C-alpha cells in the first residue's frame, strides 16, 4: 500500500482538529543529519504538547495514509530521522519536556520524551541518584530518540543498554491507540513486554511519549586511568584481569588507536597527550563504587605493570584531570567528522573474537583500498567497535566512491562471519536496511515484518527505516 504525500490542505485539517498543535515549517536544521550524508525533505514539523495530541495526529495520518517520521534530537547516525521524499511530516516531541516525577525511594524518574538526556542526568543528581547512560550527544539527544534507538554509550559494560534502564513506557501506536505502561516495577510478568518491543524500533512501531527510568546510587568514588597497551588482545586480557580483581566496579573500558589522536592533531585540537609516548593502542578505564575504589584501581594497575599488561599509565588525581582524559575519547568522533570518512561502521563481535576482527577487517579493507587510514575505537568492554575508514592523507573520500560499497561489505562480512552484529548501538535507520536483510536470520526477519504489519499495517511510521516499507505514492 502506497503512502499519500501530505498537502497544505491536510495540514489545515490537522490544525482544525487539534487547535493547540504547533505546526512549523521544516527549515534546514530539521532536514540534516550530523555527518551531512543525507538531506531530507518534509512538508512541516508537527510539535504536540501532550500524549493526547500525539494520538490525534497519528490517528488522522493513519486514516489519510500520510507518512510521519518521529524526530528526537536529530543526532542519529544512520539516517532514521531524514528521508528524501516529498510530502512527509516530522513529529517532534520537543515541547513535551516535563520531568513528571522523581522517586529516589523507588530509584525511578518519570520523564517525557522531549527531555534531553543531560537534563535527566541532572535531575537524577539533584535527587541524590545516578542515571548512568552517557553518550557524546547527551546535551542534544532527547529521551524519546534515545529509547527509539536503544542507545549504548560508555556505561553499557556495567549498566547495560538503554532498554536495561527502562521500567515502563507511555507510547502511541499508528492508529492512535495510547499505551499507558509507566510502571515502577522490577518484576512484572503480565503478558508480552511491549516496552522492549518499542525500545529500539526507531519509531517504526509506535511513538514513545514518556518513560519511567531506573536510577542508581551515586558512587562515593570514581577512578579514571589512561593506559598504553600492546593491542586489542592485551586490552581484553587487562579488562578480564581488572574485573577479576575489582568486580563489577569497572564502569567503562574504552579502546583507542593512535590514528584518532593523529586526526585531532591534524585539525588543531591541541589536546595534550597524557602519556610520555604515543602508543598505537590505548585504553581509558573508569571504575566507580564505594570508598577505596581509587586505591583499588591503583593497586590493580600496579599489578598490571608487573605482569606487563600495560606499558604506561596515568591515573587522574582530580575531577579536572578526569574530564581531560574523557575529553580525548569524546572528541575523537569530531576529529573523524572533520577528516571525512569513506565509510563508518558500528559493529559488535564476541569479546573472544575482537582481536581477530581487528586483524581480519584490516586485511579485508586494505585488499580493496590499500592506502586508506583506519581509526578503530570504541567500547571494547561490550564488544562494540567503531571501525571507520578514511582517505589517505592528501586524498578525499570522493576519490574512493567506486570502492565505498566494497569497503563496507568487507567489514560487515568479517563481522557476520565472526558471529557479530553490523549495528551495535546506532540502529539500522535507512543506512543499513540492506544489511539487515542480507545478514539476518530468515525467520527473525519474517517475524519482524509480521510485527510491523500488525502494529502499523499502512506503514505510516518512519517509512523505509529498519525494514523496506511503503513508498510515497
Please characterize this protein's 3D structure.
The protein is α+β, with helices and mostly antiparallel strands and 473 residues long. Helix content is 34%, strand content 20%. The strands form 5 sheets. Strands 5-6-10-8-9 form a 5-stranded antiparallel beta sheet. Strands 1-2-4-3 form a 4-stranded mixed beta sheet, with no helix packed on it. α11 runs antiparallel to α12 (404-417). The mean pLDDT is 93.
Note the main attributes of this structure.
alpha+beta; 473 residues; single chain
What does the average pLDDT come to? 93
| Unreliable stretches | none
β-strand number: 18
* End-to-end distance: 9 Å
Oligomer: single chain
Report the sheet with the most strands, covering strand number, pairing sense and barrel closure: 5 strands, antiparallel
Q: Order of strands side by side in the largest beta sheet?
A: 5-6-10-8-9
- Rg, rounded, reads 23 Å
Distinct helical segment count: 14
Report the portion of residues in β strands: 15-25%
What class do helices, strands and sheet pairing give? Answer: alpha+beta
Basic shape: globular
- Helix amount: 25-40%
List the helices and strands and how they pair.
Blueprint: H1 8-17, E1 22-24, E2 44-47, H2 51-64, E3 68-71, E4 89-92, E5 99-103, E6 108-112, H3 117-126, E7 129-130, H4 143-149, H5 156-159, E8 166-172, E9 178-181, H6 194-198, E10 207-214, E11 216-217, E12 221-229, H7 232-246, E13 250-257, H8 258-266, E14 281-289, H9 293-306, E15 312-315, H10 319-339, E16 346-348, H11 354-368, E17 373-379, E18 384-390, H12 404-417, H13 433-439, H14 442-455
Parallel strand pairs: 2-4, 3-4
Antiparallel strand pairs: 1-2, 5-6, 6-10, 7-11, 8-9, 8-10, 12-14, 12-15, 13-14, 16-18, 17-18
Amino acid at each position: 500500500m502506497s503512502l499519500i504525500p501530505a498537502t497544505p490542505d491536510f495540514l489545515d485539517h490537522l490544525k482544525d482538529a487539534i487547535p493547540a498543535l504547533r505546526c512549523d515549517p521544516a527549515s534546514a536544521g530539521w532536514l540534516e543529519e550530523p555527518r551531512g550524508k543525507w538531506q531530507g525533505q518534509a512538508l512541516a514539523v508537527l510539535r504536540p504538547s501532550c500524549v493526547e495530541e500525539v494520538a490525534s495526529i497519528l490517528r488522522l495520518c493513519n486514516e489519510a495514509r500520510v507518512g510521519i517520521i518521529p524526530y528526537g534530537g536529530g543526532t542519529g547516525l544512520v539516517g532514521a530521522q531524514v528521508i528524501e521524499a516529498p510530502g512527509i511530516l516530522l513529529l517532534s516531541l520537543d515541547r513535551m519536556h516535563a520531568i513528571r516525577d522523581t522517586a529516589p525511594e523507588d530509584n525511578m524518574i518519570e520523564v517525557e520524551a522531549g527531555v534531553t538526556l543531560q537534563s535527566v542526568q541532572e535531575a537524577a543528581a539533584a535527587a541524590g541518584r545516578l542515571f548512568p547512560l552517557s553518550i557524546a550527544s547527551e546535551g542534544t539527544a532527547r529521551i524519546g530518540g534515545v529509547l527509539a534507538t536503544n542507545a549504548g554509550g560508555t556505561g553499557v559494560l556495567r549498566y547495560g543498554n538503554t532498554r536495561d534502564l527502562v521500567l515502563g513506557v507511555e507510547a502511541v501506536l499508528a492508529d492512535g491507540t495510547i499505551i499507558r505502561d509507566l510502571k515502577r516495577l522490577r518484576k512484572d510478568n503480565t503478558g508480552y513486554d511491549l516496552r522492549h518491543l518499542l525500545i529500539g524500533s526507531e519509531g517504526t512501531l509506535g511513538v514513545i511519549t514518556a518513560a519511567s527510568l531506573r536510577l542508581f546510587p551515586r558512587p562515593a568514588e570514581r577512578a579514571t586511568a589512561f593506559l598504553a597497551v600492546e593491542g586489542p588482545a592485551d586490552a581484553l586480557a587487562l579488562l578480564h584481569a581488572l574485573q577479576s580483581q575489582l568486580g563489577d566496579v569497572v564502569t567503562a573500558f574504552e579502546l583507542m588507536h593512535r590514528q584518532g589522536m593523529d586526526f585531532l592533531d591534524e585539525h588543531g585540537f591541541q589536546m595534550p597527550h597524557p602519556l610520555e609516548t604515543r602508543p598505537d593502542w590505548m585504553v581509558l578505564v573508569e571504575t566507580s563504587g564505594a570508598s577505596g575504589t581509587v586505591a583499588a584501581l591503583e593497586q590493580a594497575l600496579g599489578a598490571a605493570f608487573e605482569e606487563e599488561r600495560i606499558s604506561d599509565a596515568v591515573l587522574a588525581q582530580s575531577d579536572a584531570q578526569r574530564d581531560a582524559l574523557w575529553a580525548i575519547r569524546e572528541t575523537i568522533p569530531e576529529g573523524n567528522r572533520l577528516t571525512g570518512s569513506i565509510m563508518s561502521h558500528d559493529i559488535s563481535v564476541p569479546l573472544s573474537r575482537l582481536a581477530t576482527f581487528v586483524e581480519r577487517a584490516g586485511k579485508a579493507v586494505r585488499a580493496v583500498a590499500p592506502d586508506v587510514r583506519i581509526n578503530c575505537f570504541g567500547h571494547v568492554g561490550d564488544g562494540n567497535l567503531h571501525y571507520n575508514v578514511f582517505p589517505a592523507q592528501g586524498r578525499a573520500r570522493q576519490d574512493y566512491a567506486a570502492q565505498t560499497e566494497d569497503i563496507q561489505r568487507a567489514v560487515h562480512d568479517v563481522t557476520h562471519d565472526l558471529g557479530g552484529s553490523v549495528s551495535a548501538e546506532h540502529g539500522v535507520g535507512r543506512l543499513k536496511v540492506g544489511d539487515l536483510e542480507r545478514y539476518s536470520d530468515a525467520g527473525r526477519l519474517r517475524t519482524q515484518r509480521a510485527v510491523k504489519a500488525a502494529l502499523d499495517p499502512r506503514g505510516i511510521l518512519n517509512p523505509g527505516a529498519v525494514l523496506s516499507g511503503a513508498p510515497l505514492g
